[in-house]
Design goal:
mainly beta; eight-stranded mixed β-sheet; about 160 residues; globular
Length: about 160
C-alpha cells in the first residue's frame, strides 16, 4: 500500500516571506508543456497541483498579475512580491487554483497523471506509460481529475 500523505500540505516561496497551507486533498496534478509555462518556470514545463482556492491559507502578502494563455484565456498569477516565486495561477473567479508543485515543502509524492500542450514539449521529456497526453489544452479536466482519483485514492489524511 502506498504511504499516506498528511494534510495540511505546506509550501512557500524561495525567500520564506510567503507561506501557504492546503487543507484539503488536491484534485489533480499534471504538467503543462506550453511555451508560456516553459518561460515562466525557466524549465521544460509548469507543474499544476489543482486545489480548491478556499482551502489554501496564505501567510504573507501575495502579488498578482494577469496574462493571456496559449489557449486565449486569462490567467491570474499569484507570486511572492519579495523574491518573485510563482505560487499559483487561476482563472478569474474560479473555484480552483493550480499551485506550482515545486513550491511544496515535500514534493516526494508528486507524480503527474497527465501532460497538456505536449506538442510543445522539450526534447528528452518523456511521458510515463499510463499518463494521459494532450497535444493542446484539453476541453476540460474531467479525465485528468478521474485519473488522479484512481491513482491517489484515499492517500490524503487529515
Amino acid at each position: 500500500m502506498p504511504p499516506q500523505i498528511a494534510l495540511p500540505l505546506n509550501g512557500g516561496c524561495q525567500c520564506g516571506a510567503l507561506r501557504y497551507s492546503i487543507t484539503s486533498a488536491p484534485v489533480a496534478y499534471y504538467w503543462c508543456h506550453c511555451t508560456q509555462c516553459q518561460r515562466a518556470s525557466g524549465s521544460a514545463f509548469g507543474e499544476s497541483l489543482r486545489v480548491r482556492r478556499a482551502d489554501v491559507q496564505v501567510r504573507g502578502t501575495l502579488g498578482h498579475w494577469a496574462r493571456v494563455t496559449d489557449a486565449g484565456t486569462t490567467t491570474e498569477v499569484a507570486f511572492c512580491p519579495v523574491c518573485a516565486t510563482r505560487i499559483w495561477h487561476t482563472r478569474p473567479d474560479a473555484e480552483f487554483c493550480h499551485i506550482r508543485g515545486g513550491t511544496l515543502d515535500d514534493t516526494s509524492w508528486l507524480e503527474p497523471v497527465a501532460h497538456i500542450w505536449a506538442r510543445s514539449r522539450q526534447p528528452g521529456v518523456e511521458f510515463g506509460p499510463d499518463a494521459l497526453v494532450f497535444e493542446k489544452q484539453p476541453s476540460g479536466l474531467d479525465a485528468i481529475v478521474a485519473r488522479w482519483a484512481e491513482r491517489m485514492g484515499s492517500r490524503f489524511t487529515p
